[in-house]
Amino acid sequence: MIAVAAGEALGLLWGPGLVFLVFIIWLIRRVVRAARTESRLEEERLREWMKGEVAQLQSTKAEPRLMRVPTAAERKKRSAVPAPAAPEAVPGPDVITIVKVVDGKVVGKWQFG
Predict the structure, then answer these.
(1) What is the C-alpha to C-alpha distance for residues 44 and 52, in angstroms, rounded to an integer?
(2) Are the C-beta atoms of residues 106 and 99 closer than 8 Å to each other?
(3) Dmax of the chain from CA atoms?
(4) What is the β-pairing status of strands 105-112 and 96-102?
(5) What SS3 state is found at 85?
(6) Helices (H), the chain
(7) Residue 89 CB-half CA count within 13 A
(8) In which element (H, E) is residue 108 found?
(9) CA-based angle 84:89:95, to the nearest 5?
(10) What pTM does this model have?
């Protein structure tokens, strides 16, 4: 009796189960096809973008970029070591200085540390 009932239940489920399997296979094929199409479109967009970049680079290669060379005096001036700051202006490594400025004038100065 139980075997007959199980057989009937399996028979009832076989139809919808088969339809479900066919639907899932069809859906998976659609997803794979859409993914392939999207991949091709992205590849085509990338190729077009690369063509534009290459053309832009080739057009800028033809134009030389000239830079002004600094004179010897300018080079010497840049490489000169600046004079050391006054000792009271340079706080220690563990000192935090807070300055209050109002209308361009220092009105308060605090050091912590």
Answers:
(1) 13
(2) yes
(3) 109
(4) antiparallel
(5) coil
(6) 2-61, 72-79
(7) 3
(8) strand 105-112
(9) 115
(10) 0.38
Q: In degrees to the nearest 10, what's the CA dihedral of 68, 73, 76, 81?
A: -120
Q: Where are the domains of the chain?
A: 1-79
User: Residues, the chain, total?
Assistant: 113
Q: In 62-80, where does DSSP find H-type helix?
A: 72-79
User: What is the chain's pLDDT, residue by residue, as a tens digit (113 residues)?
Assistant: 556 676 777 677 777 788 888 899 999 999 999 999 999 999 999 999 999 888 887 776 656 667 788 888 888 888 776 666 666 655 556 778 888 888 888 888 888 76
Nearest CA to 91 out of 107, 105, 112 is that of 112
How is residue 65 annotated by DSSP? -
Tell me the one-letter amino acid at 101: V
Per-residue tokens: 51: 């063509």
CB distance 97 to 109 below 8 Å: yes
Contact 93, 73 (CB under 8 A): no
